[in-house]
Write a structure and sequence with these properties.
By secondary structure, the protein is α/β, with parallel strands linked by helices. The chain has a ten-stranded mixed sheet.
């Protein structure tokens, strides 16, 4: 390891009606950065172990930088053991991170008994995942937790106010309280690691700050069980952050994003205040980004888009194809396509199938890059004429120029045969329909 990060703090205390936990992070005794979590709401109480908040929020950043992490603050009994196990899991999942040494002052270990607070919270951004978990547990949830500085940066004050107003309206309609948590950790963390890598522990840190009033908190799932990956909420890791004072529940992995839309489609409160956009500038949803369009398509398929008043701008479903070159959207688009097929929405099936096929291009390029050393030259497809292969690449250059330029151009002269083999293995239906069938006369031009 490079050295040691140590966390010093005066703990969590009430100041001017707010609960504040400020930590000073030092590297080998030298000041590195301050990190602050501030909560505002009714009847807040300081947590028994404020060290849990700062320690969990900084753990993955320490792993990313390969520094041991030491807390000068009290930690819950067993918390170091759980954090060590989490660090080993993250180490196995992420080659760029390393398991590090974790410790706290022996004198600060608190072995006394503690009880969970009576409140039940749910992290609530106003998105599909949030509303789905809220709908499932609204009979037991007492508090909605909105994080400033999480997906909406602290400097976007107008956007945060717009988002927050909807959260308060939802809470009022359901008879719940709202707790706002603000954190500046991204000003420090984004210089060291990708936000998607360490973002969930920031939610965990906020949860531990609130353990004086909330004994159970639902953390809405990002992906369903079939699509799990190690850089988002995860049903195996999330509950491991729990302590005797706080139960953290990973919730909602039983449904994919389109199924969640289907579940909340007839809940007018959700349709009025739904916020999915991350490009908003003072509006709840811009209506034109990939996520906005995909969500609107789901409600269109369900016949409820006209009731969804939270989207602004013109609805243009065809624009979903403009964003299809980013392969990480593959699973979400597939969810929406399955929903359209379930409800036999012909027009949307056509649009989504075309967008879905476009995503095959960069995924195939990724496969090509990964298999380059093993592929070399091959003559496996000599039976297919050179002219047909040339038609294939001519079609790709004409129809997908951005992808061809960015992903494939460097490989074309050397690996035409190998590239075609991968296309045939992964995209043969698309290949036949779009290139071979036309070449062989099964389709009319145009």
């Amino acid at each position: 390891m490079k050295g040691e990060w140590s966390i010093a703090s005066e703990g969590a205390r009430m100041q001017d009606g707010e609960l504040c936990c400020k930590g000073r992070l030092k590297v080998d005794g030298m000041f590195l950065s301050d990190v602050t979590f501030v909560a505002s709401g009714k009847n807040l109480r300081a947590p028994l172990f404020p060290g849990n908040c700062l320690f969990s929020g900084l753990l993955l950043l320490a792993m990313s930088e390969k520094y041991d992490l030491h807390s000068e603050l009290p930690l819950s009994p067993g918390f170091i053991g759980s954090a060590n196990e989490i660090s080993r899991i993250i180490d196995a999942w992420h080659p760029e991170a390393s398991a590090v040494g974790l410790s706290c002052d022996q004198g600060s270990l608190h072995q006394g008994k503690s009880e969970k607070a009576a409140g039940v919270g749910c992290f609530f951004s106003g998105g599909v995942d949030s509303f789905y978990s809220l709908m499932r547990h609204k009979d037991v949830i007492t508090h909605l937790i909105f994080i400033h500085g999480f997906d909406v940066p602290l400097h976007k004050e107008k956007s945060r106010k717009v988002s927050l107003s909807g959260v308060y309206r939802v809470a009022e309609a359901l008879g719940m309280e709202v707790i706002e948590v603000s954190t500046d950790i991204r000003y420090f963390g984004d210089q060291l690691a990708w936000w998607g890598f360490y973002g969930i522990p920031v939610l965990v840190a906020s949860a531990h700050l609130l353990s004086g009033v909330l004994g159970k908190i639902y953390l809405p799932a990002t992906l369903d069980y079939a699509q799990l990956k190690p850089d988002v909420t995860h049903p195996y890791v999330d509950p491991m952050w729990s302590t005797n004072e706080l139960e953290i529940v990973h919730d909602g992995a039983c449904a994919d994003r389109a199924q969640k839309c289907e579940a909340i489609a007839h809940w007018d409160l959700a349709l009025e205040h739904l916020r999915v956009c991350w490009e908003l500038e003072g509006e709840l949803n811009c209506g034109g980004c990939e996520k906005c369009i995909r969500t609107q398509i789901s409600f269109d398929v369900l016949g409820r888009l006209d009731k969804c008043s939270s989207f602004s701008g013109d609805y243009e479903p065809e624009r979903i194809k403009e964003y299809a070159y980013e392969s990480w959207r593959f699973c979400y688009l597939g969810d929406t396509l399955r929903l359209a097929r379930k409800h036999e929405h012909g027009a949307m099936i056509k649009i989504l199938e075309e967008a879905y096929l476009l995503i095959r291009a960069p995924k195939t390029a990724e496969d090509l890059h990964a298999n380059m050393p093993a592929m070399g030259s091959t003559s496996s497809w000599e039976a297919i004429s050179r002219s047909i292969r040339q038609d294939l690449f001519a079609y790709l250059r004409q129809s997908h120029p951005e992808w061809m330029i960015k992903k494939m151009h460097r490989y074309l002269p050397q690996v035409r045969e190998s590239l075609f083999r991968i296309f045939w293995q992964r995209c043969r239906r698309w290949l036949f329909r779009r290139v071979l069938a036309r070449r062989l006369g099964f389709l009319k031009p145009g």
